Amino acid sequence: MDDSGEWFRYHPLFGSFLRQRCQWELAVELPEIHRAAAESWMAQGFPSEAIHHALAAGDAKMLRDILLNHAWGMFNHSELGLLEQSLAALPWSNLLENPRLILLQAWLMQSQHRYSEVNTLLARAEQEMSVEMDTAMHGDFNALRAQVAINDGDQDEAERLSMVALEELPLANYYSRIVATSVHGEVLHCKGKLTKSLAVMQQTEQMARRHDVWHYALWSIIQQSEILFAQGFLQAAWESQEKAFQLVREQHLEQLPMHEFLLRIRSQLLWAWARLDEAEACARQGMDVLSTYQPQQQLQCLAADGPVLTGARRSG
């Protein structure tokens, strides 16, 4: 940025030359330069940029402080790679002193479907912490365990943990309360208690929107659509999906795997209405969303969408 506040960038070749000269000539001063840069970025409200410089400076204390203040906002905006790199740079002792960072690390594992590692990490942390966790932190841990349990197909354990978490969590711990409420609604859905599940998922959506937790807002709307579809209210399911697509556009959630799931259930709804060409187009659009994801995630989509694509081709 120049003196007038305008951004500019050097040609990549010249920029690489300058970085190399900097490392040669300012090796001793470089950590302090990175600290100053991190402080400057923080003052301007850019914690992600500040983290890059804190990492380059090797300053664990600065990195910890930035994460404690801004990590959850970054998590909610899906800056997962940078968070994982940052947490890996902190000593385990620093994490033990700050259980919310352990909770964050566990949520990152959950987002990567590393369910067994989540429970191992939480159990290790509980065993090695020098001070006993308060009830609210227990609630945070149990809400995450409930999410892992439902993802792993253990409905009874998910129900137990979600209800325990809701009893333990104060209203201020809104994120974990949203998680626990969502899991409770999903368990009701799995057990066929559709009317109760719909009400709980509507409550989850309201909570998630109030606190700008957009991925849970999207998930709760998707669940509502599935419930309405199962009840035979196809037009209402369509309208829920329309609301979900609007949320995807407004909050730029196009690359989330949940967007593929939304496209998949839209495809299934179109299939139920015998709008086969549109169903095929939706199924293919969903596969495009997952084009940058791991093969196993793409296979799940292909397995779900296969009947739609096959039927559309036959009808043609």
UniProtKB/TrEMBL annotation:
* UniProt signal peptide: none
Q: Where is the MalT-like winged helix domain?
A: 1-26
Q: Which residues form the MalT-like TPR region domain?
A: 139-303
Which SUPFAM superfamilies did the record assign? TPR-like
Q: What is this protein called?
A: Transcriptional regulator MalT
Q: Which organism is it from?
A: Klebsiella pneumoniae
Its organism's taxonomic lineage begins at: Bacteria, Pseudomonadati, Pseudomonadota, Gammaproteobacteria, Enterobacterales
